[in-house]
């Protein structure tokens, strides 16, 4: 008589009756089940205590799928962020330490939170870059406004702004401390420890540089 | 000094020891409860409390006790020349201890080196050994070799040389390993600016205790101020003073010297009874009504909970107080009736006499197994702990009878609960697990015999027997406390009607049936002939053998469990894992414990 459709109750509800669970004698007397439960509790307790004491506990990242203690004691222990994690911004540098940023305002235009403020400036007279590109006199990011969408990184034509520091936005005491000026942003290294980028760049005057000049064209 | 003054001072000392034991264990339990719960659920739990101490203090803490041990061993070696007939025993003791401490030190250091990487040439040599388990295996072989050589060659021509060798080398190994281990620890922390003392997180309850003392002591505006303040004390003290009738060790016997207590007896005959004047019972008070005192005071604890509920001027508190009172009254009945069977068998209400009966016959858990089970259940209910914690059922009535308490008064209710756990565990270990009695350990020493056949005999000094017995009592009490915590983390809370049904319809009839069955069996055994008595004595010896073999088997199983290697599979499914590998894993940080 399995799965037969019958009408139930005064409203003649139609449905397959759900069978009552078969409760064996050991379940109904309750005690064997308590013993079983206690056994499981103790197994976990002894195993985890042993692994803690002998330094055999799981590496929460590498062995996180195994049984045992997988929790991370933040902030003493930290889970490494994935490679494409968008952390605090940094401004990349050229070989000579100047910012790669050419103050084109692409990032501040693309920014949906409008948290980037750039004041462009000309290189001084005699600098080979003068007339070819500008530099940011001020480059300010309000990290409190930033929504970490990464649009600025996408927008940048010269790979000058990146979010590969691997540092998440830290909490500070006051709003002023979230205003990151150019020198702070240029101070952050990437996760590989470098303040440059992997993308090559030809400076004006070098071989391979197209020699395009804003004043002449 | 007169004898009365001495006995008064001893009374104060014993009361201090017992109160300190109960309170300290309770404090540790408040933390261990949370820590165990976390570990069971694969978390770490509260272990972050840390006291920073300067490096030189830490080095002193490592070296000081080691120097004391070394001094004691050297003193024993140089000044206390053992009598020739005892040299064999001493040699065996020292060589085994020396081997034990040597492999233990090496294994601990090798384990440390394995997790943190070698830092010195000694570390390099140790990591060259490979798995620290090899040190354990080598130590085990050395233990058996020393035992075998000592036993085989003791009576041969080389006997004296072997004994002297074992005595000297054993003491030398002991000194070397203790001093070497401490020096290694002091050396390896020399570059640390400060050292964190964590004690596996044991500082946590101390920090919590300090915190609760300085918290605001809030009394609701319409509450009865006097009763509200009195209630925590009324529930706290009965739980604590119950320990007074539970003996924590066998009677210490003294010689009598010109009207006062002389020195301790060096050894006792097997059924030796001390003279009344020359004995020190390791029990705070001598009460002929011992067990009744326990129930009288345990009943007083109800008043505290009910009063707290009533005096708080809060509906939830009142409900919690009423629940607590009804639950404790209900389960008190079962508790009392279960012990009637035990009292019938032992023929006394004095707890120390009960333990003596168990030491001469069999442990109470074999004589009254049903009573043990019922009493355990009822005492968990009596201490208002999970699965019987409906008086404070958070999901229904906020926090029950201590909803309106804060700070130290709240902590006292909590504390009372844990002290009740300790005292009920102490009582259970005294009545059902033989108290300070250990299988085959009698007043004169170890005496293994089944029926009439003696298998092994070894005399032991009086003090050693009493101390080992007291340690056994502490161990049994802690095990029962731990079992109650395990139950707390295993079972869900009962519903109120289920609780009442379990108490009145199941446990109470079962305890009555237990009384009836016990009475019939006791009658039958008493009226049967001496053959039955002899058979029962044989059965009692078998229970002791069962306990001894079971304990030994459990120990071996535990060691195998500890040594068994752990295999973990690494799953590298993310770029986080690549970064973690490059950093040498996330496990080996300061908090990895």
Give a quick set of tags describing it.
heterodimer; A: 217 residues; alpha+beta; 2 domains; three-stranded antiparallel sheet; 7 strands; elongated; B: 593 residues; mainly alpha; 8 strands; globular
Tell me the series of helices and strands of chain B, N- to C-terminal: HEHHHHHEHHEEEHHHHHHHEEEHHHH
Radius of gyration of chain B: 28 Å
Average pLDDT score of chain B: 84
Rg of chain A, nearest Å:
31 Å
What's the order of the H and E elements of chain A? EEHHEHEEHEEH
**Strand pairing plus helix content of chain A: what structural class?**
alpha+beta
Q: Helix proportion of residues of chain A, in percent?
A: 10-25%
CATH class of the largest domain in chain A: Alpha Beta
Strand count, sense and closure of the main sheet of chain A? 3 strands, antiparallel
Which term fits the overall shape of chain B?
Answer: globular
DSSP summary: helix tally of chain A: 5
Task: Count the E strands of chain B.
Answer: 8
Low-confidence stretches of chain A: none
Measured between the Cα atoms of the first and last residue of chain B, the distance is 52 Å
Topology (elements, then pairings):
The complex is a heterodimer of chains A (217) and B (593).
Chain A (H helix, E strand, L loop, with lengths): L5 E3 L4 E3 L9 H4 L2 H23 L36 E2 L14 H5 L5 E7 L11 E9 L8 H5 L5 E2 L16 E2 L1 H6 L30
Antiparallel strand pairs in A: 1-2, 3-6, 4-5, 5-7
Chain B lengths: L2 H38 L10 E4 H24 L8 H30 L4 H9 L3 H21 L5 H30 L5 E4 L5 H11 L11 H17 L10 E6 L2 E5 L14 E2 L9 H22 L3 H32 L4 H10 L3 H4 L1 H14 L11 H4 L9 H25 L9 E2 L2 E6 L2 E7 L2 H27 L7 H32 L2 H34 L11 H8 L11
Antiparallel strand pairs in B: 1-2, 3-4, 3-5, 6-7, 7-8
Helix pairs in contact in B: 1-15, 1-16, 2-6, 3-5, 3-6, 5-6, 7-15, 8-9, 8-15, 9-10, 10-13, 10-17, 13-15, 13-17, 15-16
